[in-house]
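Look over this entry.
=====
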Amino acid sequence: MRAVADARVAVLASGEGTNLQALLDDPVVGPWVVLAVSDRANARALERARSHEVETVFLDPSAHDDRVSFDRALLEVLLARSIDVVALAGFMRIVGPDVVRAFAGRILNVHPALLPAFPGRTSVADALVWGVKLTGVTVHFVDEEVDHGPIVFQDAVPVLPSDDWDSLEERVHEAEHRLLPAAIRALVEGRITIEGRIVRVLEKAPA
């Protein structure tokens, strides 16, 4: 990875892009964000990126015969821009093995639950249905299994008796917006080590 000051981060998002906004607003991480990619042309995330003069790319899934073709097109986009770190921030497609292998140890995902509980797309709703008292947020490295890679950070979010989907999601988002920038900063600054599934985050970069 290049020098910290010159780090290049790409954010993949499919929807509103609130996590992208949190990254753009972060005084340390924001300048590193150089690319936003979406699989939806009308994603609000792309508008947020453009408002910060960040390059945007729409990759149309219908223009590709299968997931392998889409994944290779995504990899080409990332490599052509010399991306160092990839952040999945509400990206609603499974990132395939070509991208995962090319960015092994450099691709993070934020998930709205305390993994391994409630993987998949319906995590907030699942927490309400199951009646759990705590849910939360996980930032983890991406591997070739869904919502599976080594965990960098987790933060618990209480589930209140009065919660509905909107109120719980709002508090989950607040935790996401704290953890994802912190994880990207730690990764870029070289403060993360991985041993199997165990991730350690140093307070200061190694000398």
The longest helix spans residues 165-188.
